[in-house]
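Can't attach files on this board, so I'm pasting raw text. These are the components:
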Amino acid sequence: MHQVMPIDMEKDLLDANRKLAAENHDLLGRSGVRSFDLMGSIGSGKTLLIQRLCESMGKKGVRCGAVLGDVMGDDDYKRISALGIPAVNLNTGKECHLDAHLTEHALEGIDLGSLDVLFIENVGNLVCPADFPLGTDSRIVVISVTEGDDMVRKHPLIFKEADIIVINKSDLASIMEVDVNILVSDARTVKPSAEVVITNAKTGEGVQDLIRALGI
Amino acid sequence: MHQVMPIDMEKDLLDANRKLAAENHDLLGRSGVRSFDLMGSIGSGKTLLIQRLCESMGKKGVRCGAVLGDVMGDDDYKRISALGIPAVNLNTGKECHLDAHLTEHALEGIDLGSLDVLFIENVGNLVCPADFPLGTDSRIVVISVTEGDDMVRKHPLIFKEADIIVINKSDLASIMEVDVNILVSDARTVKPSAEVVITNAKTGEGVQDLIRALGI
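---
Top answer:
Structure tokens for the assembled complex are below.
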């Protein structure tokens, strides 16, 4: 459920979220965990990217965990935990985004002391998560070339929130007749300070570039 | 902006939306216009489907128009109006879904007397539009096989709202390693009364089936 609300109430809710996000950030920092919030539309490839990142970093001894957010179900959680990656499933029930309060509860369900890096996969949605930072060190927006080359300029708000912008499924650009250069150029226009990384999570292409962008 | 709100306020807002939706429905009915709300994620192919439907029905003398909803920009509006299809651009600014009130204003901007059919393209989002009927005769959910075969069961609420479920970009199923049968079966489980139509808007495949499902 999501609707316009009186401006005062909206401000109160965003302020409350920011306060909780700061608490989450402190907890993660004290625990020595680097944390990343992955936002992006349905099917952009967030879960597979988390898998590839955890696999690759795991080989170098970096201990990764994940919180898998979704409206309903545990498909993503099952995929990730089946690989032996510490994971928590987080259902919003009806809400279209995670928030700092839900994240706080998820953090209670994972042994932060055993992790170096935590990925939080937000609900598949390119609008709503923008307003609700979770308290991670950085926010990542993942888009897929299958979404069309107009999609960055259609959703500038979420890209302005991003520290890293990932353009995934690069192998499908030609079959989709999508020009990746337009996506890259729009991303750089909307958020000049963000790092833009092109990946193909299926083959693992670009995953090392993304790890560098994460600063790990 | 979208956040949990007190239950009373949520109920009031949904009731107010339903009342306005009923007024829109009356107006469209009195004007002799059949109306359809197209919901679905970003890049599912809603705009191209509207184009194909209007082109095909136009050849048979059915006069179609469209309202193109988006958070920002007028990419979709330009695409449709360039084809000579009467169209209205509808930006929500920040909201993740259309509502009956926004629709009411859009209807003021289009000559209903000159139309037989009106398509309303909702904001690209598979969560939020579910709660906000606009007053159309039917609601359509469009998904693309590129979103993965788990996406119906991840978002049952919006499919429960659908009278027609369209599975688009069928040509990409094999390259995406997505089993269309799983999408069809999940759709039939979630909403047994909905018609399920498989399309490839790019080539026009399945568009005649969809026109039949619309009852036109």
